Here is the input.
Amino acid sequence: VESSIPEHMREAWRKYSPSGFTTKDQFETEIVRHIETTLARSLFNCDELAAYSGTALAFRDRLIMDWNKTQQRQTFADQKRIYYLSLEFLMGRALDNAMLNVGLKNVAKEGLADLGFRIEDVINQEHDAALGNGGLGRLAACFLDSMASLNYPAWGYGLRYRYGIFKQEIENGYQVEIPDYWLDFNPWEFARHDVTVDVQFYGWVNKYTDDEGKQIVSWQDGEIVTAVAYDVPVPGYGTPTVNNLRLWSSKASSGEFDFSKFNSGEYESAVADQQRAETISAVLYPNDNLERGKELRLKQQYFWCAASLFDIVRRFKKTNRKWSEFPDQVAIQLNDTHPTLAVVELQRILVDKEGLEWQTAWDIVTKTFSYTNHTVLPEALEKWSVPLIQNLLPRHLQIIYEINLSFLQTVERRFPKDRELLGRVSLIEESQPKTVRMAYLAIVGSHKVNGVAELHSDLIKTTIFKDFVRIYGPDKFINVTNGITPRRWLHQANPRLSELIASKLGSYEFLKDLTLLNKLEPFVDDKEFKKEWAEIKYANKVRLAQHILKTTGVSVNPKALFDVQVKRIHEYKRQQLNVFGVIHRYLAIKSLSSEERKKLAPRVTIFGGKAAPGYWMAKTIIHLINKVGEVINNDPDVGDLLKVIFLEDYNVSKAEIIIPASDISEHISTAGTEASGTSNMKFVLNGGLIIGTLDGANIEITREIGEQNVFLFGNLSEDVEDLRHNHFYGDYQVDPELQKVFDLIKSGKFGDEGSFGALIGAITEHGDYYLVSDDFNSYTKTQDLIDETFKNQDEWVTKCITSVARMGFFTSDRCINEYADTIWNIEPLDVAEEKQVRART
Ligand code: GL2
Here is the structure.
């Protein structure tokens, strides 16, 4: 290391290196010091936000020291690292997680109480880090937690958006988007103004032969934008490992606006250059499962890939190894196709900059990369226009063409007579304009491709990537079923349940080895245990009811069945099926006498989720839910029997309140459309049951916990195609009960007949692509079964406990270990020694 302290002076460093607080008194000393000096506040103006800031800074100090040591340890160990490239990291709040992972939450709780604060209020001050849309981004966050908790030498690479996913407000039943500026005070990031990379755009390619007769390719001119690293510590649970998440921020390469322009009076244009550079990392694209081909998005992707690759290569070069050893030191996981340009960028670095032969370079590239596919929805598969790439990244387009040529030549040699195959698998689609098929490029550039649940991994092999299975053989395509971190999604979100489980199992070891939950099963007959279990669920429901009252003004009965569907709003996820089911239930209630109504099971149906700002159908679904809620919640005939709630601004921290309070949650996508789903796992792990289709991870959840513990309904994925065909060519009729629902909507009962008519039309006139009508009867019958089952609370609790006991498989720790073994070929770092040192001090 160049600027390191000479050996004989290191003693002083070691002596004075801070060790961080462990006791309550030390914690209080730290927090007061930070509030008075770092924040320049005092006990006379210390509000909850200041208390949060002081607490965060105190914990941050502890993390930094472990973080520094982890980075040193990983450098000295000099073993293979995994780099997880993701355009989204949906981290949520950091403080509670840091307190629990470090294991000092109780110390903080007592310390804060001494200083006049309730820890919950302090935790609630934190702004969510919402650099993601939905499941894909949250999966990346769970993976970071698991990689750190399992001591893997791992880095995340992403973008430091100035604006995360927008905040959602509901006005008159409509979604309104508010910008999410979240960086006012963010103690969890460290600007590394000394870690920068210059990234080039536009320009042209100069090919020539140098004096020694060597072919030189040089990408010239264009525009330079600087990437600045911002590092975020990622603490593991119960381990000294603190990994790094590196997020890039863009700024003008001069760092300032152009002074010559400025001095000659061209103020606007001087500032415009600077703003254009900063725009690259300004905002997260708010689409989930949808790609729109915008130039700024491509710029984001390249900016982030180029900076990350430069950084990774720079780190590798410090080890002075041969290039052939690159794949023994570096594994790069592509989280969806968003980072696929990294494949091209590494090839460019190796060939143009480092002078390797094309094929030698390409072997290194394909051994380094692997790709995770997260969707089969055609509208979500990235295709970039060739002219757009030509203009923005002229050298990369040449490399893509060269990769394609050599790939197609191999295919032709293997399948000489199949001309159509070549057209089908070409990286270039011969459309107007031509496009680059990013998923195909990712497959060709990787040694392994995985889907995220069994059904999904089978589907990609038999549908969108079928030809590639023929070409590469089946072993390149594998399944790694998603998982979730039990630290955040059980221990942090549901501390009382976690504590109850620990009291039965004898320790919190299950948070590190979730399969230990199976030891709960013998307790299903333990009356006292079941009582406590039910009490905890009830308390969580009371808490959610309070949140509902505060945010919507509607009072709900916590004894009612809480039925929850929270996720991005999407036609394929079928919130419309749910709300039509609600209207069906409303009609049923209205048709009964008041005596008969007394026999019904009261229900609260809760929705939450954001619609992409440009997705009109999704926004109309939100509007319908809100309007239906207005009518039902104010109908005196209904009372407590049915309430319909739309919770504003669903995000990670709200999920932590909602999920533990659910009795039933809905995972009701059209079979074959939801690649995995991950909230299904979170709900079951928190003692809720699910209603679901045979889709994504629902299938594996059912296999693990038993069919008797899941409410399955609907058509199978293998029948979807025929059903769709039948909508157009068969003797097709809308389900008669659903028709009654449509009639009520059309009568104007919920207002806005015009736009709600479009929701109906999608089903009655435009082919019902998502099979809402086909599944309606099965759905409502299953809901009736849920009502019946919920009446027997003892049986219900048995199902919940049994299910939790069998959820061990769905930890992201299992998932990360599978990636490490079957794709990355990396080992965890031994931290036993470090743990001992810590135990002594
Ligand atoms: C998604 C899938 O839709 C979802 O089913 C899956 O659980 C996650 C994580 O693998 O990935 N794919 C996708 O594009 N988004 C997802 O959430 N946005």
